[in-house]
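Researcher: Re-running this chain for the archive, since the previous output was lost when a drive failed. Same request as before.
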Amino acid sequence: MLLAAFLLCFIAHILQGVLMLGPILLAFAPFVAICLLKESGRSSVWLAGLAGLCVDLFSDDPMGLHALNYAATAGMLYGVKRRLSYEEPLHLGLYTGGISFVSTLLQLFLLFLFDRRVPFSGKWALVDVFCMPIVDGVYALVWVAAPLWGLQRLRYKWDIYWVKKKNLSRTSH
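Model: Regenerated structure tokens:
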């Protein structure tokens, strides 16, 4: 499931770079959310850092900035997962929105700290800090949670099919 989530997020990251359509999503935010919901604290922070490294490879920001951002965001939001389940698509969307919000605020601080050429405007604050987490949450529901839910259902049906077939072949002998 983690590999499928990573591939879906990586494809979305590449597509938004190639197509340059509309707002810029935090493409790996759903992956970070799934890592936090499914894995232990240390491994989820490492996986979030690796996702940030993938973003760094395609970014013109200083190298390691996104990896630091994603790992720090994962470290800060790990304790929130107690009330959420990775199997519920709505929980994934809400958690992704929270990750997007915290990551955007942390990115603003890190960019100000390491790269002072970033302009700051009220429109940016309104759109990126308050509206984009909602868009990222919807993106997580549509692009990641729905296909993963479909894969889970397909795997469940596949397992049931093979269990029934195996049981039928035993009874016929």
